[in-house]
Write a sequence for this structure.
């Protein structure tokens, strides 16, 4: 939530606000379900079209409604095994491109930051004031609202 809004509100009005949040979430969930179903139907149609193009030994087909094109894209997955990861990283280093590919997942980075922050916090107020991780900007706080329906 980016902007802070100051309000004067009664408990009854706050309860009504919770009801509105609940109703809006339900409306969004219903639309998500509908969209998910539509995407499922589209995926089925796409699978059928790809099979048809393959059967006809064609890469594309033009109709008065539009053109469909069968595309192939080869891909690999990141190794899950630690030794395989190390082998890949070593290969990238040998090729001189490791720095171009080395990234840290933002969730993993934030978890690491939180652990380090809590360790500094446990050392006392002076440690937390001086705490930083080289290369990272100062932390930012994002406020959000949790809602659990009854």
């Amino acid at each position: 939530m980016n902007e802070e809004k100051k309000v004067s509100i009664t408990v009854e009005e706050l309860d009504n606000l919770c009801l509105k949040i609940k109703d809006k979430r339900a409306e969004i969930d219903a639309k998500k379900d509908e969209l998910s179903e539509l995407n499922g139907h589209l995926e089925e149609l796409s699978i059928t079209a790809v099979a048809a193009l393959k059967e006809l030994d064609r890469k594309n087909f033009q109709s008065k409604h539009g053109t469909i094109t069968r595309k192939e894209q080869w891909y690999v997955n990141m190794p899950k095994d630690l030794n395989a990861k190390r082998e890949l990283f070593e290969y990238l280093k040998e090729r001189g491109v490791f720095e171009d590919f080395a990234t840290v997942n933002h969730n993993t980075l934030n978890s690491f930051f939180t652990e380090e922050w809590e360790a500094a916090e446990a050392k006392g107020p002076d440690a937390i004031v001086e705490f930083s991780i080289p290369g990272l900007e100062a932390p930012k706080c994002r406020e959000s609202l949790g809602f659990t329906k009854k």
